[in-house]
């Protein structure tokens, strides 16, 4: 197993990707701490995991994140997958200022707080991996609102963290993933737009697949397996970069 005896914290572990990553980490031998804001979804995600711990913590709350890590103790892997409140599908000229800025401010704050807290502790021990994920929209994605600037801020944070922490044995790595079918469901998207139905969502997925080099959308399993590899010692030579798991939405 790739993560035997590793301690991993997954922020946003109640979501589709977060819960899948938590399961994959646990399957590979990690002791997983599932963290988020809603206990019910966290407990559901942890229900069949061995030695998993659940904690209700707001990743935007610096004191709460620090206090939780104090309770956890040594940590080997920190993965931020928290939602940012992105609003998409509107031209920038028609978007409210708060809707544009929300993902930038929330994403930057949550990633910085969680990464800094984990990295401080990892650096003291001389090892560890800080992971994050975004859509890669910093490359340029129209109708995506504040998603592009938010992704750009995360990309820069990862690269700078890697440069500063590398000499102390800590890696910082990210994944780009966009339009994963398992995360685009009527139940989830309907909370934002009640007019959406399965046919409309399938049309969106078909359109996304046509934009990719592989002409297919990436699967949730592909995302999680990549995350496991990056968190493991097999990826010891990879830091300061993002792995493109978009199935070729854009060149990496």
- Tell me, rounded to a whole number, the average pLDDT: 93
Which architecture of the largest domain does the CATH hierarchy give at level 2?
3-Layer(aba) Sandwich
- Main-sheet strand order equals 3-2-1-4-5-6-7
- Global shape: globular
CATH class membership of the largest domain: Alpha Beta
Provide a count of the helices. Answer: 8
Structural class: alpha/beta
CATH topology of the largest domain: Rossmann fold
**Helicity level, as a percent range?**
40-55%
CATH superfamily of the largest domain: NAD(P)-binding Rossmann-like Domain
Distance between the termini: 29 Å
How would you characterize this protein structure?
The chain has 252 residues and is an alpha/beta fold. The protein folds into two domains: 7-179 and 218-244, Rossmann fold; 181-217, no CATH class. The chain has helices spanning 16-27, 39-46, 62-72, 97-125, 147-165, 186-189, 198-210, 220-231, and strands at residues 7-11, 31-36, 53-56, 77-80, 128-134, 170-176, 241-244. Strands 3-2-1-4-5-6-7 form a seven-stranded parallel β-sheet, sandwiched between helices. Helix 1 packs across helix 8. It is globular and about 45 Å long. The two termini are 29 Å apart.
């Amino acid at each position: 197993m790739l993560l035997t005896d590793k301690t991993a914290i997954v922020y946003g572990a109640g979501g589709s990707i977060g819960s899948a990553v938590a399961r994959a980490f646990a399957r590979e031998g990690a002791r997983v701490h599932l963290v988020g804001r809603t206990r019910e979804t966290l407990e559901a995600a942890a229900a069949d995991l061995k030695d998993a711990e659940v904690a209700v913590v707001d990743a935007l709350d610096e004191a709460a994140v620090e206090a939780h890590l104090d309770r956890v103790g040594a940590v080997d892997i920190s993965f931020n997958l928290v939602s940012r409140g992105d609003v998409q599908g509107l031209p920038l000229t028609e978007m409210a200022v708060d809707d544009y800025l929300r993902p930038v401010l929330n994403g930057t704050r949550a990633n910085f707080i969680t990464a800094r807290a984990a990295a401080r502790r990892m650096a003291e021990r001389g090892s560890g991996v800080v992971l994050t994920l975004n859509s890669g929209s910093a490359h340029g994605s129209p109708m995506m609102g504040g998603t592009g600037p938010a992704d750009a801020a995360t990309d820069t944070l990862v690269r700078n963290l890697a440069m500063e922490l590398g000499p102390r044995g800590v890696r910082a790595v990210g994944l780009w993933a966009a339009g994963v079918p398992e995360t685009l469901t009527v139940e989830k998207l309907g909370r934002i737009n009640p007019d959406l139905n399965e046919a409309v969502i399938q049309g969106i997925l078909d359109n996304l697949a046509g934009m990719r080099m592989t002409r297919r959308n990436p699967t949730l399993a592909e995302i999680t397996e990549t995350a496991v590899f990056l968190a493991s010692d097999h990826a010891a030579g990879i830091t300061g970069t993002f792995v493109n798991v978009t199935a070729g939405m854009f060149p990496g």
